[in-house]
Structures are given as structure tokens and as C-alpha cells.
Amino acid sequence: MTLPRITLVSTLLLATPALAQLQITPPATIPSPAAEKQKPKEPAKDKPKVAPHTITKKKEAAPAPKPSASPTPALPATVIPAPAPDNPNVDLVFGAYQRGQYKTAFELASARAKTGDAKAMTMLGELYSNAMGIRRDYAKAIEWYKRASDAGDREAMFALAMLRIAGRGGPVDKGEAVKLMASAAKLGEPKAAYNLALLYLDGQTLPQDVNRSAELLRQAADAGLPEAQYALATFYKEGTGVPKDLERSVRLLQAASLADNVDAEVEYAIALFNGTGTPQNQPAAVALLRKASRQGSAIAQNRLAWVLINGMGTSVDKVEGFKWHLVAKTSGKGDPELDKRFSELPADDRAKAEAAAKKWLGAK
After folding, report:
1. What is the mean pLDDT of the chain?
2. Which CATH entry fits the domain spanning 92-229: 3.40.50.1260, 3.50.30.80, 1.25.40.10, 2.130.10.10?
3. Tell me: the pLDDT tens digits for 128-149?
4. Which terminus of the chain, N or C, has less C-beta within 10 A?
């Protein structure tokens, strides 16, 4: 098992769990991306390994793309999404925020904060933290987040925890961050539960505990957080902190893919293609690979290239297939076998594939 590429959610992200590796080998398989990202790294001592993606197929044998190592979770700091109000239909502050009317949101929130409204305080923290309608001021953001946290607002607790982890507005304080995250998770904040799970998985800020990590991921996944659904799917796939259960893993991948989680789309496509933990449905798998490819997944682009070039689950389209191969190469997803086969294409087809790839890359 390898540690998944998992994303710290807030929109603060740790990085997303990588699942499957896509190969096409006899009896034609599409290995999941995770396996690819899983190529043995320097021994990650005492860390659980979570395999990210795998598939299989029946058709002409073709050389399998080589696996590539998956990165270990890191804790970057990004923008923290604004908390949703208890009743968005009557919340003028949140409504102004959603419409991008940040100055209006700031004025309304300032007035409501004076009455002790914790949600308004959290909104002020959000606006100051992300320079929305007002100059960025982490000190003021922390002040408002802290007041809202003290008033019991779980989104403020989580937002403040992320600032403490990132060292924004003051020194890094992982101890306080963990306490705030744990409090927010107890109050049902799924992003806090998810990120706390990653800290237990990583084993640096907190003692490594894959069982506790799995519990927290389940809490966040049950609340509908796609990143948690994807991460928990990797746990069930490998039996990390939970009993191995491919069917449950695939159900979680399906849920996350429906929420447009790109990594889950690729993993779920691979499962559908090979009939792993779910009935085989290659046309549906190809459709998902197309979607993930358009969303910029180099792994999906490489897999899509293979199925199009070989007519696996879809009709043969070498120009389109090699287009995606060339696009994937620009993201570091090279494939020597496809390079060889591309060089053997008629000159006209090569020119068409190159033009299609340039057009796609230029449009992005």
C-alpha cells in the first residue's frame, strides 16, 4: 500500500488519494492510476500504503503503461470556502457573498456581528482572510474567526485551524490547529474530520493511527464530502484501517465521481472497464475517461489514448487517441510504447493528431 495523494479540504488541501493504475495487457486490462503513482519510492517507513487505481479488460494485448510514483500528502494553505448559513433563503450576508458582492457582504456582516451573530463573524474572517471586498488582514481574520469559534461556530473553528497550520497571521501552531479541528469535527464539520484523518494517516503532526483515520474519513464521507469518499475508497480497496471491500470501495468512487472528483472518476472508470467490484460496463468507463480527460487528468488522457487506439470499449480512433497521448505527455505522462506507435502512423494522421493536440492545449 502507498500513501494516497490526498487533498486537504477547506479548500485547503493535502493532495488527493491516488488509486488505480491503467495498463492494457492480456487479457486486456486498464490498470488504475494509483498503481501507477505507486511505483516504489524510497521506503516510507512505518507508513501505511494506500493503493490508488486498477482495471482489466478483454481484447488485443497491448503493452502496459508504466507506473509512476504517487506523492505523499502535504499541507498547503489555500482559500477557505465561506460557511453556508443555517437558512440561505433569508441570509442576505451569504447571498451577497455568493453573488460576489463582497463589500455589501462585509457591511451586512459587520452590522450583524455586533449583535453576536457567529455566522456573520465567520464571514468577516473569510473576507479578511481572502481579501474579498477589503484588504487582506490575517490578524483581523484570526480575531473574527476566534470570536466565532468561541461562540461555537464549527466553520470558524476549521478556518482558524487551517490558518494556524499554515502559519498565516502568526506562527505555525499545529497543537492549537489539531484541537480546533477536533472540536469542529465533533460538531459535524466534514472538512475538519477529513483533514484530521489525513493528519492521523500522515503520522507527523499526530501519532499515526490508520483506524482512527478511517473512522474520520467515514464521518466526512457520510456527510457527502467527495475527497473523503475517494480517500475512504482507497482504504476499502487495500484494507487499510477497515476490512478490504472492493464493492464498497467502488460505491464510494461512484459517489465521489458524481460530485466531479476527477481522481474518483478515473478510478471508477477503471473499475467499470474491468468489472472490478461492479458489473463491467466499458462504454460507461470510456465516457468517464473522456470526462476526466477534458478536466485535465493526465492519467485519464493516457488511458483514453490506449482505449481509442486499440478500440477497447469504443470504436478505434487513432487520431483522437494519439491526440490525447500527446496532451498527456505535456503533463509528464509520457508513454514510450505509444510514442513508438505514433511514429509508425501515416504522416497525414500524425499531422492531424498533432494539430488536434495543439488546438486542445491552446484552448486551455
Report:
1. 82
2. 1.25.40.10
3. 999 999 999 999 999 999 999 9
4. C
